[in-house]
Design the sequence.
């Protein structure tokens, strides 16, 4: 009968799942083909899933602190830089569990506690469904409120027409 074991990458860079065959009838039974081998999930994968799930919540204006958003805006303008979906997200991935820290900017006028609850629910559902890891905590830091009359730092407006 196959016994499930899990172990963490020595660098802490991801999670590894492995099924080991403990023998069976005739000693040569190898188990179900889908259970052979190992699957590794990197922290960056979990961060991307969580970042996209958090951005899907109404009331979340942006992810990350002002400094990281400013640096990200510069990086986004560099050819090949692309938008970073992991901005404002940090994941710690263990053997079968993960913990997440998110930094968000909310829109003015929304209930911060409601947005934080919705972000937690959406992130937990997405990570558990896609990565198969148990999410033990989602810590959310609200670093700013986007006022209606503020210009986005990510939008560049030229003075020339």
Sequence:
């Amino acid at each position: 009968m196959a016994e499930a074991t899990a172990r963490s990458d020595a660098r802490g860079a991801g999670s590894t799942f492995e099924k080991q065959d403990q023998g069976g009838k005739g000693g040569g039974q190898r188990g179900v083909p889908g259970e052979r081998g190992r699957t590794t999930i990197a922290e960056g994968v979990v961060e991307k899933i969580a970042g996209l799930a958090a951005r899907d919540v109404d009331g979340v204006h942006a992810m990350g602190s002002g400094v990281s958003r400013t640096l990200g805006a510069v990086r986004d303008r560099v050819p090949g830089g692309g938008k970073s979906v992991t901005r404002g997200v940090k994941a710690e991935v263990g053997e079968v569990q993960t913990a997440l820290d998110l930094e968000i900017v909310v829109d003015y006028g929304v209930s911060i506690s409601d947005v934080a609850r919705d972000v937690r629910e959406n992130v937990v559902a997405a990570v558990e469904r896609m990565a198969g890891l148990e999410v033990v905590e989602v810590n959310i830091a609200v670093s700013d409120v986007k006022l209606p009359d503020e210009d986005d730092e990510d939008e560049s407006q030229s003075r020339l027409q």
Summary: The two ends are 72 Å apart (CA to CA). Helices lie at 43-55, 66-77, 112-131.
